[in-house]
Each structure stands twice: as structure tokens, then as C-alpha cells.
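## retry 2 of 3
previous attempt timed out at serialization; input unchanged, resubmitting
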Amino acid sequence: MLKAGIVGLPNVGKSTLFNAVTRTHKAQAANFPFCTIEPNTGIVTVPDGRLDWLSSMSQSEKTIYAAIEFVDIAGLVKGASEGEGLGNQFLSHIREVDAIVQVVRCFESADIHHVTGSVDPVRDIEIIATELILADLASLKKRADRLQKGARAGDKAAKAELALAEKLIPHLDAGKPALVADLDDNERILMREFFLLSAKPTIFACNVAEGDLADTAANSFVAAVRDYAASHMGAEAVIMSAQIESELAQLEPAEAAEFLEGLGVADSGVSSLIRAAYHLLGLRTYFTTGPKESRAWTIRIGDKAPAAAGVIHTDFERGFIAAQTVSYEDLHRLGTEQKAKEAGRLRIEGKEYVVQDGDVMEFRFNV
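## retry succeeded, writing output
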């Protein structure tokens, strides 16, 4: 299962958010730096209204959602790449996740200490970005040194790696994360072998005060994060209030919806964050539905029908014949599978079909 790591400076709401996302109290949340030392982990279901509708349509006995793993990682401070604070631990833990959810504080409060003494979310983002880039620079330079001998001896793999390292080093030296380096597809595939921290897909979670949740457009901190995330990292920013989310996590769904309505908010920030992290990891969903069970199955972008079938069982992939397929949008619009069939929206797809997010599928196979 792929992992999304929750990171940020100390005391910005990471552990509170983790507890809300996982609906647990695993992570200690306190008003002092480094209250998290060892990472906490939790499996999180991905909210999906499409699956809810399919389950209702089929009157399914069970509804099974997609899931990802979240990891709450210790706070990072300036100098982490040189071992400051819990730097070495932080960097080793972040190396093990597949994507980064960076929590940034977007509210003022005299009661909650900020490790730098003031609230400036863009500065906070840049502190973490700099530490990840510095750690990557150190590891790349060591790798380039090791590759020199093989490259001089004519080793093709060593030559390719060295060329990529020499292309990335000046990019990182300019203070830019590997994530936005101008690379072709082959170079991006090769870069995975470097396990660079600044190459990990990233999303920003803007932690706002309760009073700002209904009108985030008026929050200048949020506007600054959105602009920086888009222009410097090609990344998305999600708005949430960690404190509100931790309270919502204690409520039943109907009570939580009523509470959000009272705040003037349509959807939980945590729900949006989970869905965004799922997509950030390169994951997509197809569905199966019937009286016994409606289920969301997790695939990667670009997976073809046999690979999607193999997620259910290897026999489905090995003996794949075809996939009866209808898009969720068509099925929802028409109301039933029979009406989708009558409208010509129910298709039979073969081995080369690239499964789309939201496809509702039934596989035919023979082993």
C-alpha cells in the first residue's frame, strides 16, 4: 500500500490532522515542538460518493472503499539536512513515503507557539524545501563521485546515471526541487533510482482557524500558499482546519454534516485532502457492484483492463477475456445498468483498454 507522509515545521497541526484523517488518537498533539518523534501510521479509507450511490443502486450488503496509508512524521527545523532538531530521523522517515502532504499554518494565535516566532506559510514551505534540496544535493554529489569510475570504463548505465546527476545538481543548487526539473520521460524513470526527497509529489494542507473556514478567499496566507504551490512546484493546496477536523472525527456522519452546515461549509477538508493525496500518489479507482458487495478497486494511472482485473485476483488477469464496462457518469445519469445497456453506453472492452477513473466493470475470464 502506498504511503503519504504528513510533514511540516513543529507545532503547525500535523499530529492533530493525522488524528482527524485516521480517526484515532495515535499521535500526541501538544503545544510544543517535537511532540511527535517516532512516526505514527494509519490506514485511511478514501471517501467516494460514487461508491455510495452504486451501493444504494445495487442495495449491496457491504460497501468497501479504497484505502491508503498516512504517516505522521516528526517536525523539521532549519538545519535538518545537517542533523539539527530531529533532522536525520525526519529525512529517513520521509524517504520511505511515496508522497508528501505538507501542513502549513495559515492562522494567527497568541496561544499557539510558532517555532520561528511568526506566521509566514511561504517561508515555512521554503524552509522544508531547502532542507530536502540540501539533503538531495549531498546524496547526488556522493553518487556522482561513485559513478565516475564506471562511466570512464564505458559502463552505459553508469554513464546515463552520471549524466542525469550532473543535470540535476545545478538545478538543485539553484534552490529548485527535483520535482520540477526539466526532464524527459526516460530521465524521470531513471531519477526514481536516486530516491530524491525533493522529487516526491507534494500537496499542501493549509491549516486555517475555525472562523476562516467558510471564507478562505479572505485569508491572505491561503492565497500566498496557493500562488507559491502553483508557481514553484506545480502543486495543489487543500484548505482545512485541523482543530475542526479533530472534532468532526468524534461525531457520527449525520452529526458531522450538521456541524459543517452550521459553519457554512459543504465538505470536510479531510475528505478533500484524502482524495487529493490518493490522486497525488498516481492512484485511480474503478468499481464493481452487486447485491452482495459494492467495492472500489485501486489501480495506477494507465493500467489496462487485464491488470485491473488482476487487482481482484491473479486468475482474473491470467485468464482475462473481456471487461463489461460503463462509466459511472453514464450509469448515474441513466439510473440502471439495463438503461445504460439500452442507451448503448455499456461496452465490451478488450486487453488493450486503458481503465478510466470511475469505470464500473465486470470481468469475463477463463482459467
